[in-house]
């Protein structure tokens, strides 16, 4: 009975992924970069199958405001092919590790004309059904302070200090109370030890009669 | 035989005093909240703005827009004003709860120092917020300060008075 169940589960696990699972591609949502700097666009995927040798990655670029996208990178058969004619020639570098399902690219020397959407599409044969994922690149002259960062930081620090002060105050009270308690116990013990010794040394005073006032 | 004023009158005066102090504190909180939330720190004919966003009137319709960015509107100071005004509200509200707690837990003859400290911190925070706003924004513009801005300064005064009261007040009954 047990062997039958084991065989059935192995069989099911073998059959089900073939038919229903798709490949899931992950890139960032938005990336910010400074003019003149380098930016790394990461792309990885999840697939139920082992990474095959025919795994492919391809990146396409669509400038802001344009409806056409051009292909800028393709990895297939173990060889990366970078853009050598388009806007990214000599600026694109493949920094991914296809064996680890990483198809990231590096764009050097960013310019304002690089604002746009980069789409990564990965295929892991026979797992080829999937939706490409896009990352939006924004190029700035100076990195802007994101809305609310300083506000949140100030409020968080002040409230955190308040909580810390309250906690320390109650902790000190608790510790001091414990110390006082332990001190009184040790005093009590010392008294008890000296007690019987004193009795041996102490002789009762002789009975005397005092004249009445 | 009476020893001193009528005890009923004494309790009544103490209750009235307590109610007045509580009312001052609550009014301070309300003013702080209105100053922080209501959009009227700086106004012109067609613009009504505060530290969070801006209303612009175009063709009879009020449109909601973001605050301008750039050198005339420094982002860091704006966020500092936001943080300080929110903190002032928070400390004042916490102060109310602390005051009520101290009413029940303080021993006779002691002062309401912690409530006073909370109100004082709220007073400092709203002072910092209003001062930064007065000093750094709308320096060369035509317009006038709106009611939220004025209420911010009034609540500074109220919270200051309230904190002094708490520092001076002693608990009369156990």
Automatic annotation (TrEMBL), chain A:
Pfam family of the protein (one)? V-set
Q: Which GO terms describe its cellular component?
A: plasma membrane
Q: How does it sit in the membrane?
A: Single-pass type I membrane protein
**Spans traversing the lipid bilayer:** 145-171
Residues in domain Ig-like?
17-138
Segment forming the signal sequence = 1-22
The entry's keywords: Disulfide bond, Glycoprotein, Immunoglobulin domain, Membrane, Signal, Transmembrane, Transmembrane helix
InterPro entries attached to this UniProt entry: Ig-like_dom (IPR007110), Ig-like_dom_sf (IPR036179), Ig-like_fold (IPR013783), Ig_sub (IPR003599), Ig_V-set (IPR013106), Myelin_P0-rel (IPR000920)
- The protein here is known as Myelin protein P0 isoform X1
Q: Which gene encodes it?
A: mpz
Automatic annotation (TrEMBL), chain B:
What membrane topology does the annotation report for this chain? Multi-pass membrane protein
InterPro entries recorded for this chain?
PMP-22/EMP/MP20-like, PMP22/EMP/MP20/Claudin
The UniProt keyword set, sorted, is:
Glycoprotein, Membrane, Transmembrane, Transmembrane helix
Span-the-membrane segments of this chain are 12-37, 77-100, 112-133, 145-169
Q: Which Gene Ontology terms of cellular component type are present?
A: plasma membrane
Where is it located? Membrane
A Pfam family recorded for this sequence: PMP22_Claudin
Q: Where is this protein chiefly located? A: membrane
Which Gene3D superfamilies does the UniProt entry name for this protein?
A: 1.20.140.150
What family does this chain come from, according to its entry?
A: Belongs to the PMP-22/EMP/MP20 family.
Could you identify this protein by its name? Epithelial membrane protein 1
């Amino acid at each position: 009975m047990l062997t039958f169940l084991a065989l059935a589960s192995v069989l099911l696990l073998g059959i089900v992924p073939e038919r229903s699972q798709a490949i899931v591609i992950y890139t960032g949502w938005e990336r910010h970069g400074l003019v003149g700097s380098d930016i790394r666009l990461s792309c990885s995927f999840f697939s139920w199958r082992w990474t095959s040798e025919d795994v492919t990655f391809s990146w396409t670029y669509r400038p802001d405001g344009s409806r056409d996208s051009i292909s800028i990178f393709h990895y297939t058969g173990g060889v990366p092919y970078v853009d050598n004619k388009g806007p990214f020639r000599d600026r694109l570098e493949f920094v991914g590790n296809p064996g680890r399902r990483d198809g990231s690219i590096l764009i050097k020397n960013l310019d304002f004309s690089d604002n746009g959407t980069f789409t990564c599409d990965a295929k892991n044969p026979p797992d080829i059904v999937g939706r490409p994922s896009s990352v939006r690149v924004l190029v700035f002259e100076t990195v802007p302070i994101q809305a609310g960062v300083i506000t949140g930081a100030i409020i968080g620090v002040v409230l955190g200090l308040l909580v810390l002060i309250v906690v320390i105050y109650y902790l000190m009270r608790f510790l001091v109370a414990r110390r006082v308690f332990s001190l009184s116990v040790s005093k009590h013990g010392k008294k008890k030890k000296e007690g019987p010794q004193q009795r041996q040394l102490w002789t009762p005073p002789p009975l005397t009669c005092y004249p009445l006032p | 035989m009476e020893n001193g004023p009528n005890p009923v009158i004494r309790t009544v005066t103490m209750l009235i005093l307590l109610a007045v102090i509580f009312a001052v504190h609550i009014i301070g909180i309300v003013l702080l909240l209105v100053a922080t939330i209501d959009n009227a720190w700086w106004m012109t004919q067609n613009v009504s703005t505060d530290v969070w966003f801006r209303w612009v009137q175009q063709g009879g319709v009020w449109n909601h827009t973001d605050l301008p960015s750039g050198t005339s509107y420094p982002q860091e100071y704006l966020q500092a004003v936001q943080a300080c005004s929110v903190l002032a509200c928070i400390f004042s509200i916490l102060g109310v709860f602390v005051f009520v707690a101290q009413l029940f837990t303080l021993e006779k003859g002691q002062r309401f120092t912690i409530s006073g400290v909370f109100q004082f911190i709220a007073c400092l925070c709203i002072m910092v917020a209003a001062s930064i706003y007065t000093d750094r924004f709308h320096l060369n513009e035509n317009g006038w300060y709106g009611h939220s801005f004025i209420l911010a300064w009034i609540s500074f005064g109220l919270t200051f008075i309230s904190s002094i009261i708490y520092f001076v007040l002693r608990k009369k009954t156990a």
